[in-house]
Write a structure and sequence with these properties.
alpha/beta; TIM Barrel; 9-stranded parallel β-sheet; two-stranded parallel sheet; 11 strands; 46% helix; 16% strand; oxidoreductase; Probable F420-dependent oxidoreductase, MSMEG_4141 family; oxidoreductase activity, acting on paired donors, with incorporation or reduction of molecular oxygen
Length: 277
């Protein structure tokens, strides 16, 4: 594995990233900043974060292949690689049928997109795939640097490591809610998870992990929320995130759920201390 991502990274959607948060995450010791929320194919936000920092990797999680064509994304990749060599990782994903009118033949569409990136000179080690099921996990290992699973558990990480084999980059995302008020943290968890429970790609994967229809109903059961969003004392949250590493992850993508009154930079610094960064 040649990706220098560090052991932990910070994920935020496009609306959640600020230069202040990016600098705080880098200074706290995180190795990668992950841009979520289907960023535009021009990759301007990734470029802004790269310019605001000195050494961290910046990755997309993920560029939706239905949103921007491969030629546009490849040109953006090469622009960032020229300006910030070795500091950008193109994370790609197929999106969701509920959100994409053109959604069809998802596996073949992803293969075709990778073929176009090959033709445009985007190297295999410069990209990674959002992957949950065995088939796309194997594709990630064969056609990219590795896999960036989203909305998963350490049990899924262990399964993904088996599918990928040794030496292939594996970076699962996990949500945390560090607001000191347990009710606020729980509401953040339920609101966030509830959105994803309307997307069949995620619910199908959660069922393979043993969650039932009852767990997936009404915004998610307490059991589901506890497994998908780590809450509580910092030391407890840090210990649970480390379970992904024990299960075979190379890098853990930490996704702080932030309410309007939460101090994102302070939270990532405090968690970094608990993680020993």
């Amino acid at each position: 594995m040649s990706i220098e991502a560090g052991t932990y990274g910070v994920w935020q959607g496009t609306a959640g990233w600020t230069e202040e948060l990016a600098v705080a995450a880098e200074q706290a010791g995180y190795g990668t900043l992950w841009v979520g929320g289907s960023p535009d194919g021009d990759l301007r936000l990734a470029e802004t974060l790269l310019a605001a920092t000195d050494r961290v990797l910046v990755g997309t999680s993920i560029v939706n292949v239905w949103k921007d064509d491969a030629r546009t994304v490849a040109a953006s990749y090469h622009r960032l690689e020229e300006r910030f060599p070795g500091r950008f990782l193109l994370g790609l994903g197929i999106g969701h049928p509920e959100a994409t009118g053109e959604y069809a033949s998802p596996y073949q569409s992803l293969v075709d997109y990778l073929d176009e990136l090959d033709a445009a000179g985007v190297p295999q080690q410069g990209r990674a795939l959002a992957a949950l099921g065995p088939r796309v996990l194997r594709l990630a290992g064969a056609r990219s640097a590795g896999a960036i699973p989203y909305l998963t558990t350490p049990e899924h990480t262990a399964r993904a490591r088996v599918e990928l084999g040794a030496g292939v980059f594996l970076a699962p995302e996990h949500k945390i809610a560090l607001n000191p008020d347990p009710a606020v943290a729980r509401d953040l968890a339920r609101t966030t998870v509830g959105f994803y429970l309307g997307l069949t790609n995620y619910t199908r994967n959660l069922r393979t992990l043993g969650f039932t229809d009852a767990d997936l109903a009404d915004g998610g059961s307490e059991r589901l929320l506890d497994e998908l969003v780590y809450r509580g004392p910092l030391e407890s949250v840090a210990a649970r995130l480390q379970q992904h590493l024990a299960a075979g992850a190379d890098h853990v993508v930490v996704n702080p759920l932030l309410g309007p009154d939460d101090d994102g930079p302070q939270q990532v610094r405090a968690l970094a201390t608990a993680l020993g960064l």
